[in-house]
Here is the input.
Amino acid sequence: MTGNHKDKTITRRRAIAVTGGTVAAGGLAIAGYQSAFADTESTADATATASATSTSSACMTLMTSVTEGPYYLDGALVRKDITEGKSGVPLTLRLTVVDATDGCTPVPGAAVEIWHCDAWGYYSGYTTANPGGSAPAESEDGSTANDATYLRGYQIANGNGVVKFETIFPGWYTPRTCHIHVKVHTGGEKEDGTYEGGKVNYTGQFFFDDDIAQEIFTLEPYAKHSGSYTTLDNDMVYDGGGASSGLLTLKAVHKKDPSKGYKGFLTLGIDPDAESTGAGSGGGGGGTPPSGAPTGEPPSDAPSESATASTSASS
Here is the structure.
């Protein structure tokens, strides 16, 4: 059983785009944000939630950034649905950005950027990098996804500091546990389908409960990737701090059928004055696969940002 997102308007290209980016140490505090699950939220509810969140010590404690890892690409598109037809268990992320230095008030206009691997452990832009274990080639997935852009994107926070992404549950690659990368930007603006300018306030990663992840990995298409999965306790980046270290709170769409998907949420408490380089303090450099590691330099036929943006409409 599996969940699927389909977007047949995007033409698949076997291009590999590698345009390096840097980010670095800043601060972030993360706490569960239950009300972010509501599809609609009144101003009164948002105000009450923000007030309650401001009393949380977790929100007021800034967390040191962790590594951005080896798979970052500049020029991700501003859009809510980042799947591009990639198959997997649906995952809705509701994230709320607040200013942890000012009573955890919302940060409207903050740009949240995420990127992660597909069900077999492949990242867009690096589709020939070996995910470890035994997995089909990325080209065998049968999707319509653009190899330079799938499972990457920005969303701009609304007046309550909330962003929402529609994606799939990530797979895994050796030697890392299941995770999603995140950056929070402020001071820039949407331009040509992407986000330009400003600065990065935080670079981090989101993590998943082992029991939920390993249950999902028995489903298709995840089950086609076999090998040794790294649990949270053995991961080189996750430090065991729960929500304050990026562990998502997850809610099943259907308790008896995990293939129907999950909703995940966190509150991201940033310091808008901080600037992050992505070097972070997480050990191991983010976990480069055993072979096929990216070089950080774009190939000669890599698409330009403008060409990439034109392949997928923003939403």
Q: What stands out?
A: The longest strand covers residues 194-207. The two ends are 28 Å apart (CA to CA).
